[in-house]
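Researcher: Go.
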Amino acid sequence: MTAQLERTIPSFDDAYVLDSVLGQSGQVARCKMWSQQQRRWVVARYLCGPAALDEQAQEEFLADYEHVEGLTHPVLLQVLKVERVDSVVIGIEEFVEGTRFDRWLDANTSMELSERMRIAIQLVRAVCCLHEHDHLHLGLSEHAFVVQADRSLRLVDFGRHAFIHEERHSSLSEEERRNASPEELAGQLPSMQSDVFQVGALLFLLLSGRRARLSPAAPIPSLVELEPSLPMGLGQLVDRCLSDNPEHRPSSVASLLKGLQEQFLQLRTLKQTRSSGSFAAVRSPARGVPRLS
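Model: Structure:
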């Protein structure tokens, strides 16, 4: 795979020095480069395969980058510039060192619930930040986030993003279909409530160690029933996110963020009023869960 991707790398000028090929997701390839001008590591993201020769695909890829170019927030990947090389659109992004979200969870199954909630709040805040700038993050998955050495979370893939009021249909990959909302699977236009559903799927994974569903057709179990040792309000909040009816979900990602912060405050208060020995009753139910499939 690496050798095949190396043959697709556009011919950059002396401004960048290729270090390595990072991989491919769908029709998008990524490589790590050294920027001679900025004196830092960056990532080049570009279309490969048939899409590299598809003019319409290139224009859509350019439009995607123009949506998020210039967005700055500590939880968001920064797009440094967008350029064309031999008619190929190249997105130049900052290089973020870290471990992919699902792999990090797989290696940290013994986390306390309070730590999982800190991660959850960062995750929801990242999507909330996009919504504040009128962006949807379509195709949200665990692959979109990395956890850095200091346990801070970064959103490193903006997905099939679109403006909130933009009427935009696009095909879903198999990976995206697993977390997609029922209305998206039915071919309806995505909305902020679609992002709420996808965030809920990631919170389900974070708090239980299990994916909400392994296929688009699979039913989603209740987190309250699956993990009864979780605080009732927290489980109910995630279950609401995963409701088939968008009207039954939290009204916005901002509302979800507020609810999570309230649950976290309650957990901290409870922890402060209990001795360290009795606090074991509110530890993460995901302790010792099987490795993620």
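Model: The first helix runs from residue 2 to 6.
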